[in-house]
Amino acid sequence: MKTAHELRPGNVIMLDGSPWVVLKTETTRSGRNAAIVKLKLKHVLQNSTTEQTFKGEDKMEDIILDRLDCTYSYYADPMYVFMDEEYNQYDVEAENLGDAKDYIVDGMEEQCQVTFYEGKAISVELPTTIVREVTYTEPAARGDTSGKVMKPATIEGGATITVAEFVKTGDKIEIDPRTGEFKKRV
């Protein structure tokens, strides 16, 4: 069992007797109230999506499914193709990847975990740290040096994240793809 707060994109949970893939999580905290977690979910078998809101402490049945370490191979519209060590290929629908597809790039060497349900590849979890190049960000503003100054940046793959003020276009940065959090420049 996992709490709603512990769920990450790529996890599969049992809800009302059906398996759902978590596509996106968004946690909101306000004052004295408990954290609220909004989940965007996709039904594993019916391809329908829904958004549901839970308290952060609500417990969900996390389904233990077969997982396999794979590397990204190529994109064949609308499927992303991953390959294991024995060169077996697994197709994952683009819509099952959620926001993770914005971090997938050609030539990526990071190992991903492909999740299977009844023999079908249904989702992919990216590693907790990836390195991507910043393709565009505004130059740093002069005189804006007090506190932790952040700005938006677009990275390889198309994701837009918030980075530190000193990051420039062309820099390589470390990111947590589960949250889109900037870690450091490398």
Automatic annotation (TrEMBL):
Keywords from the named record: Cytoplasm, Elongation factor, Protein biosynthesis
Pathway: Protein biosynthesis; polypeptide chain elongation
Signal peptide: none
A Pfam short name: Elong-fact-P_C
Protein name: Elongation factor P
Annotated ranges, domain Translation elongation factor P/YeiP central: 67-122
CDD domains linked: S1_EF-P_repeat_1, S1_EF-P_repeat_2
Membrane-spanning parts: none
PANTHER family, alphabetized: ELONGATION FACTOR P, ELONGATION FACTOR P (EF-P) FAMILY PROTEIN
Compartment(s) of residence: Cytoplasm
Elongation factor P C-terminal domain ranges (all copies): 130-185
Gene: efp
UniProt similarity note: Belongs to the elongation factor P family.
Swiss-Prot/TrEMBL GO biological process terms: peptide biosynthetic process
Cellular-component GO terms for this entry: cytosol
UniProt cross-references to SUPFAM superfamilies, sorted A to Z: Nucleic acid-binding proteins, Translation proteins SH3-like domain
GO MF entries: translation elongation factor activity
Chief location: cytoplasm
Function: Involved in peptide bond synthesis. Stimulates efficient translation and peptide-bond synthesis on native or reconstituted 70S ribosomes in vitro. Probably functions indirectly by altering the affinity of the ribosome for aminoacyl-tRNA, thus increasing their reactivity as acceptors for peptidyl transferase.
